[in-house]
């Protein structure tokens, strides 16, 4: 049996690519090292009655075009917009975020009347950047050096987008893509908490502090998604993030695709400069006309391909690709809802993102710990309690809490993480929550602690980097992951990459997988049937 | 006023009532028989009290009261307040006498309109800006280098608009003699132990006044007006009736007739004063003001858009219709339209690409989809560019005003 495509890794991008290819009529198989599918979009029951979102925990970037093309709602996917959010401040107060425009303005006004009136213009400016980038997400980045007609046409398209901007907008865009979020926010706001809240999305998954250049783009990366057209909004996948990959798997199977779990790829087979299949850890060989790797670029080429098969310059660039681990995760089963003293009873803010870092300064100090090779003593948390909205993830009255934590370095002062390090990391986070919600610790039924060590070991993400490579300008568009190989191809013929290491990058977006499938179909000269272009930005 | 002021709960729990109530809410709510509310600038305000046609008719026949509280107000004070406002706005604020008001606009550096509003000169170095949108960061940034303070004071002043041919008579009956008050002038009166400021301004294109008072005395003012106004059938009007009247007057509203520069997501939606027919306000000789250089260049170069009044065939109003030249080429967009009960004309305000506003305005058409019993009747109606204001009666300017 020779498959048309062997997809390595049942993460969301691998499944998206596989589903599109299967729908186009190719014979595909997805091989997965774990006994379960999902990669970092996974939901597992680690405590009876509780479903976790073990890694990724919220959805906004997942392209609606893909959900529709692959009929994911029919296969069980439901995205639930979430309702609010809050950043707890040192004095025992909080800064809330509200979906209602007027409530949101009044809340900011409570902290700074000036900032309340600045917010709309800020939101407008970020939206402008989103509108510029959104059409690029479902397009293969042009290679500016190739001079092939397709690249020239794509560059012309990009040029048209650029020249559609006014002079000022062009300046703003170049600044925004390269500057730090701290500098950017200083141009709009005065209140530390208001700035800290906006900065949240600029550091998530990134081994940079809010004062590092390039973090403003990371904010954009988190703002450019949408929930049903509401750009910048985030939501939960009902039943946990694993519901996304479960729906993808169901869609794939309905299209005739196969999934094999329980044994990962040992080696990608290369013969005469062409990929011909894979050998699994259990010794099985799976033959295919092409191999599509959903693993990150480092793992794919440095661990599973014989280095001799690759040009030295390519290997060097892959080694240099920044994929630094910066975060950890706590997944907690709770006997009851935490009671944050700052929030009024019944506040809708519990149904969204919660944070304890109330200034850019504190975020940067947390990053300083990372630079010194230690996890943050006063960590930054992006916390959610999905069960405030989703009734399916815990028994009634009980809750699942997801805590995304920065910063956690890939190594502790140069040494591998130990269990003691992991426990100390967890304690720093739990202590922080307890300080804002007394009694919280007593309600804990179970905690899953994931440092970069666990993320790499289990999910396979190099250094535990959630984006399969940092989202800095030097690693975007035609430079992602490696110049000359930004179109989902590799130096080895028929070896493709489709994970978040490729354009347009990380997050549960599905775009890399979809774009890779488009390129493969182009390569085999098959029509892009059942594959929508990006919805028009009006 | 005892328990009539709305309860102020835990300020953190504002999300329970995202829209604020205006100072007059106890009165407007009691009069709002249709329970018809809409949001305006963060407040809940009445759209229609009981009957739109009756409310509009009262504006042109008798006297009406409109709750103006949500208008955003900024206080500008300091020795360089006039100089600051001259730099900020396009009109000459230094020429505005104490006790006078003028309509004005302000632009960004590119010469695009940020907002329009009225500027009140309360003292030599004391001004108030009343406008539709919020601009505190812009006003503060613009104050750099000026000896001036800028403060938002929307909640500190309650405002009512008293409009209609009998509004002078109502004020007189209420004990306020404004016979000598000319248009765009203001006067102060003692009232209820406080101070009432009356300006001869309004948004209906008719005789009318705006009344400004501290919130503590606001309900007493409402009651006083309605008692005195009873013989003239004084009635409150909602935003829908006002919108009809302002369209007849040809007045524009920010975010309904143009997108303000600081809010436009799409860069081509912004407009310059030339493009909104507001360039008459620009004082080119007063020295530098924000946007001057860009506007000078635009004056040389010419503008892309024009803002016009349209007189449309037939009696079907053309809200948001596309305007065509020769029935084919899209040349503009209507932003406000109505069958005018006062004028018996089908009128509209529209953006038109130049030169279709003038040189090539002889062959304009608007495409109207009239919903009639769940079906659109599609109409192509002839439109003619015409002068604004559509409605501009002598009684609006007469001083002293007549009794009706």
Automatic annotation (TrEMBL), chain A:
InterPro entries: Amino_oxidase (IPR002937), FAD/NAD-bd_sf (IPR036188). It comes from the Bacteria. Residues 14-521 form the Amine oxidase domain. Probable oxidoreductase that may play a role as regulator of mitochondrial function. PANTHER family: PHYTOENE DEHYDROGENASE, PYRIDINE NUCLEOTIDE-DISULFIDE OXIDOREDUCTASE DOMAIN-CONTAINING PROTEIN 2. Interacts with COX5B; this interaction may contribute to localize PYROXD2 to the inner face of the inner mitochondrial membrane. This is Pyridine nucleotide-disulfide oxidoreductase domain-containing protein 2.
From TrEMBL, chain B:
SUPFAM superfamilies: Aminomethyltransferase beta-barrel domain, Folate-binding domain. Residues 307-391 form the Aminomethyltransferase C-terminal domain. Pfam families: GCV_T (PF01571), GCV_T_C (PF08669). It comes from the Bacteria. Residues 37-286 form the GCVT N-terminal domain. InterPro entries: GcvT/YgfZ/DmdA (IPR028896), GcvT/YgfZ_C (IPR029043), GcvT_C (IPR013977), GCVT_N (IPR006222), TrmE/GcvT-like (IPR027266). This is Aminomethyltransferase family protein. It comes from Albidovulum sediminis. The lineage of its organism: Bacteria, Pseudomonadati, Pseudomonadota, Alphaproteobacteria, Rhodobacterales.
